[in-house]
Amino acid sequence: METMKTILSRKSVRSYKDTAVSSEALQTILKAANASPVGMAKYETVHMTVIQNPELIQEIDRAGAEFFGDLSKTPLYHAPVLIVVSTKRTGVAAQDNVPCANVAMIVHNMCLAATDLGLGSCAIYGATAALSQKEELVKRLNLPEGFVPTGSVVIGETEEVFKEREVPMDRIDTNYINK
Ligand SMILES: Cc1cc2nc3c(=O)[nH]c(=O)nc-3n(C[C@H](O)[C@H](O)[C@H](O)COP(=O)(O)O)c2cc1C
After folding, report:
1. Is the residue at 165 inside a domain?
2. What pLDDT digit, counting tens, does each position of 120-138 carry?
3. CATH number of the domain residue 41 falls in
4. Measured in angstroms, how far is the CA atom of residue 178 from the centroid of ligand 1?
C-alpha cells in the first residue's frame, strides 16, 4: 500500500478472529515498531512485551473491564496478540510528554504496519492503565527495573475490510498563523 492509502485505511478494529497472527507478520509489525522515532534516539527508554499467551491476555482484559467498572466489557476485544509498550516515567506531566509520545509513535507505527498487512489493530490505553496498576500482572511481564506499561496495541485477523476513509478536514480544530 502507498503511505497515504495505509494511513486513510487504518481504523481501530474491535473484533478479531481467534486465529493466530503469523510470525512473519508479527516480525514485520515489530520491525515497524523498531523503525519508530524516539526522542533523542533513547531507544533504551522503551520496552516491548509481545503477549500471545491467551490466559495472560484474558487476565489483562479482565483488569481492564474492572477498571472500566463493567465486567461485561472485553477491552482487548479477544485479540490474539497484545503488545505492551513500557517506558520509564517521572510522574511529572511536563517531563512525561516525551516518554508518552515515544510509546504513541511505536504503537501507531505498529497499527500502520498491521493495516498494510490487512490485519486489524487498535491502540489500547485504558486496559494498559488498568494493567499498570496491578502489580501482580505487571510482574508477569518481566519488565526491566523502573519500566511502566504505558500503551499497548492489539493485533489480529479480522472480518473487517480496509477501505480508504473520508477524513473531514475540520476533524482537528486547526488555526493558521501566516504573518
Ligand atoms: C492514545 C490513544 C488511546 C486509545 N485507547 C483506546 C482504548 O483503550 N480502547 C479502544 O478501544 N480504543 C482506543 N483508542 C482508539 C481511539 O478510540 C480511536 O483511534 C478513535 O476513536 C478514532 O477512531 P479510528 O482509530 O478508527 O480512526 C485509542 C487511541 C489513541 C490514539
Report:
1. no
2. 999 999 999 999 999 999 9
3. 3.40.109.10
4. 32
User: Domain for residue 66, yes or no?
Assistant: yes
Is there an atom of ligand 1 within 6 Å of 123 CB? yes
Any atom of ligand 1 within 6 Å of the Cβ of 68:
no
Pocket mutation for ligand 1, best pick of 15, 85, 110, 122 (most atoms within 8 Å of C-beta): 122
Q: Worst-scoring range by mean pLDDT, 90-99, 125-134, 147-156?
A: 90-99
Residues 6+ apart with CB under 8 A from 85: 33, 46, 47, 48, 103, 106, 107, 149, 150, 151, 152, 153
pLDDT, tens digit, 9 for 90 and up, residues 28-43: 999 999 999 999 999 9
Is there a domain that residue 47 lies in? yes
What cell was used for 164?
Answer: 480508504
Give me 128's grid cell: 494498559
**Residue 86 lies in domain:** 10-156
Distance between Cα 121 and ligand 1 center (Å): 10
Tally of domains in the chain: 1
